[in-house]
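Internal ticket - ligand job 232, adenosine-5'-diphosphate:
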Amino acid sequence: MAEIKCVDLCKTYLQGDAEVRALDHVTLDIEPASFICLSGPSGSGKTTLLNAIGGLDELDSGAISIDGERVDRLDGGALADLRLRHIGFVFQSYNLIPVLSARENVEFVMQVQGLPARERSQKARDILREVGLEGMEDRRPAQLSGGQQQRVAVARAIVSQPKLVLADEPTANLDSTSADQLMRLFRDLNDTHGVTFMIATHDERVMRYAKRLIRMQDGKVIGDDLQRPIDR
Ligand SMILES: Nc1ncnc2c1ncn2[C@@H]1O[C@H](COP(=O)(O)OP(=O)(O)O)[C@@H](O)[C@H]1O
Ligand SMILES: [Mg+2]
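stdout (structure tokens):
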């Protein structure tokens, strides 16, 4: 249900002697239970914005708050705690641990959170069923298709019921059927649990699911429109 406020975010990278403005005075208000796609050409600042909101990267200036808490002022420990408890990350590459089974990959975060083994195991099974992977709990990533691996990564991201999911090009390595399934799963979580989603994507098909479409270019927000999303 996270509400996010971004005020005048700036981030510059040095590339050789040139300064690149990855975020150039970005201001955004994101309401609780939003379902947002962030679009724009490669290099427009989408990843930088998601990483800043998730506290993975520092800003040069500006303020970000999630439910009133200033993310940009938290120290490393408090940030790690915020991410562990309230934010789910989904990346283009699934970032699964190859030697662990699907269930163990999902349990990993809960283990770090200190949940008892029985509870972890039950929650992992439940969430894997919810993402359509019943019966595949014991397979390792190499024994699953790309779409299935991405669903394990999603299960891991949502198992602790985060209030915010940040997804960076989550369908980039998926065929169109898997991409549609993933977007329907995201929308279902948004519609039934009010999880806020911010999804960076180039994919026109993915954008059709968005309730709000934010366009970026050269580190700036150049478009911000509500739209009627396609039905799940
Ligand atoms: N670690 C980095 N070092 C130098 N430049 C970077 C770094 N990360 C991103 N950039 C630059 O910042 C700009 C925005 O990048 P990014 O946020 O990754 O855009 P997008 O995700 O929309 O493709 C690009 O010009 C990119 O080259
Ligand atoms: Mg990117």
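Auto-summary: The chain has a mean pLDDT of 93. Residues 176-193 form the longest helix (18 residues).
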